[in-house]
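Worked example

This section walks through a single chain of length 98. The input is the sequence exactly as stored; nothing has been trimmed or padded.
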Amino acid sequence: MNSEDVSIKILKALGHPIRLQIVKSLLSESRCVCDLNRAFDFSQANLSQHLKFLRESGILEYKKTGVEMHYRVKLKNISTLLNAMDQTVEEYFETLDF
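Given that input, the structure is written out below as tokens.
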């Protein structure tokens, strides 16, 4: 796998609205699955599938504490990437005002 493949894998993982919300919610702290499930209005099965996708893309990692699974962002530069995306979106909307 080359760097372009990894870039595509990461962007694809962040390209889904639910996964993007999950990652943003984990930027400042780790959270257990039970907290994530309460925070988002989708099924446990759906959440599990998205968490698995984010783990497999290398963005998230987890640690089992007792019976709870705690997730956190593994790639610290994801925050930088998301901030750059927010700025890009802002710039995009500014260019629409001709």
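What to look for: DSSP finds five helices and three strands in the chain.
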